[in-house]
Every structure is written in C-alpha cells, then in structure tokens.
Amino acid sequence: MNYFDLHCDTATCLYDDGEDFENTDKIVNARDARLFDKYFQTFAFWFDDRTNIRGFDYLKKALGYFLDIKRTFPGKCVLAVEGGAGIDGNLDNLFFLKENGFSFFGLSWNGQNALASGNAFSPSEGLSSLGKEAVRILDSLDIVPDISHLSDAGVFDVFSQTRKRVVATHSCCRSVYPSMRNITDEMIKEIIKRKGLIGLNLYPKALSDDPKSEDLLRHAEHILSLGGEDCLALGCDWDGTSLFEEVSGLTFVQELFEMLKNTFSKEIAEKIVYDNAAEFLEVF
Fold first, then answer.
1. Do strands 232-234 and 144-146 pair parallel, antiparallel, or not at all (unpaired)?
2. Cα-Cα-Cα-Cα dihedral of 155, 160, 165, 168, to 10°?
3. What angle do CA 253, 239, 141 make, to 5 degrees?
C-alpha cells in the first residue's frame, strides 16, 4: 500500500540522538518504512517556543545532519518547520527555507514566539505584526502555513493574510472532542474551501478521554460530513507524542487503512492514507 504522512518529529529526534534511520528505535525507521510501496513522510523540525533555547542556528545544523542521513530512509522526504521560534524572528530566514525545499511552516507550538502564540499559551492572542508579514512572505514563496498548534485568533489571522492554501498537518476535530489542540468546524470548512489538508493526529489527548482506533474514525467521519473528502489525510505525529495502546508504530497504518476502507470505502481510504496529500504536493 501507499502512505503519505504530514507530520513526525523524527528528524529532530535523530539529530539530538546522533542516529540514522537504519540505526534507531524511532517509530519512523528504515525497516518499517519498507512496509509501503510508496511512502512520503513529512519531517518537521520542532522548536519549543516555551523555552526559546533552539533557533535558526539549530535548524541549520539539524537540517544539515538530516540531509546527510536521509539516504538511509527508503521513502521520500517532505520538510516542515514546527514553531516560528525556528527563524529567530528574522523573516529573511524564510528564504533559507525556500532554498532548501521546505513545504510547510507552522507558526507556533505550545508557547509564544515573535510570530505567534500557541493555543496552549493564549487562544485569544493572534499573530504579531511580524507574524502577519511572515504569512505574506510564505505566500510569495509558496510555503504553506500550518495552523496546527496555532491560537484560534492566530488561525483567523492566517486566513486574513493569504488567499492560498492552508493546512493543519496534525489536528483533529474540536466538535468531536473538545481539546484546544483540535480545530473548529469553521476552521475545517475554510481549509476545505481553500483545498488545503487536514492530517488526523494520533495524539491521545486530541482523540477522546479513553482513546481507541474508533475515535480516529469518528474524527474522520466528521470532517467527511463537512465536505472534506479531498482534504483529509494523516498527520500521525510519529516520535512526537505518546501513543495509545492499539498503535504499534508504522504497522498501525495498514490496520487503519482497513478500518477506513470498511467504514467508508476503498476510494476514501486511499484518499486519506495517500492520494490527497500526494495530489496536494503534486508527487504523483
């Protein structure tokens, strides 16, 4: 089967631990990547904007390390930033991202940085003036803004600053489970309208009080009910979060595909697991 995932933190973990894909116990590893006929994985370089310890210098070093070890990964790599702290408040650094082939840029994580606030910090604080300018530059560079983790006010600021596509690489539905890490129906409808992407997240606290596989189906069903058949994807958050009991790693994707196929249809399952994200990034 084919698999396209919109979010993992593996690149950061491998750099921090000095490992490569062949020599690691990370969930995204060379052995399990060979389970798939085609496998595209989005690797996010993560920045904890609660501490601001890591910034652009870290990004350059971690990216250089990743580009050296990616030969040990059997699939294809898509690059992303998770957290605006990664550019040190310098918008010129966005051009570095373009030069190095980054596809997605998340403006915040759980705290606050020079561009934006995360929902865990303050849902009501939107983008700073610098953050709004960052979105306009991203727009010109064809790097897609990622609203996962972003404050509610910040999400609507992003919508106001660009008419182009917007993604939520690893978010579920707030109306299904009221976690602030999830996105509202209004946000979902706007992403659908813009032909963006929403990646279902395996983060247990985004799914339910007692997370199970069926909860993923409930979130998927809700997005589909809002018209999201062509924008729904997977953003599993591998190596970035705890997992609930049923999730065994990448092998779970095959189980999830069967559940999606049996609940909806084979066509919709294929769209969610691979086709929508692949078409979005034109990798067919």
1. unpaired
2. 0
3. 90
3-class SS of residue 209:
coil
Instruction: For helices 213-225 and 251-263, give the axis angle rounded to 10 degrees.
Output: 50
Beta-sheet strands, E only, within the chain: 2-8, 38-46, 76-82, 102-106, 144-146, 167-168, 197-200, 232-234
Q: CB within 8 A of 2, min separation 6: which ones?
A: 36, 37, 38, 39, 270, 273, 274, 275, 278
Rounded to whole angstroms, how far apart are CA atoms 132 and 160? 9
Distances in Å between the alpha carbon of 141 and those of 50, 82, 103, 222?
A: 28, 17, 10, 32
Residues 229-244: tens digit of each pLDDT = 999 999 999 999 889 9
Residue 50, φ and ψ in degrees, nearest 5:
-85, -20
Q: How far is CA 243 from CA 8, 168, 210, 225, 239, in A?
A: 13, 20, 12, 27, 9
Integer Cα distance of 133 and 161 in angstroms: 8
Q: Give me 153's structure tokens.
A: 């006010």
**Ramachandran assignment for 114, one of left (phi > 0), alpha (psi -120 to 50 degrees), beta (any other):** alpha
Is there a contact between 272 and 235 (Cβ–Cβ < 8 Å)?
no
Looking at residue 276, its amino acid is N
For 13-57, how does the pLDDT look when each residue is reduced to its tens digit (9 = 90+)?
A: 999 999 999 999 999 999 999 999 999 999 999 999 888 788 999
Cα–Cα distance for residue pair 259/134, rounded to 1 Å: 40
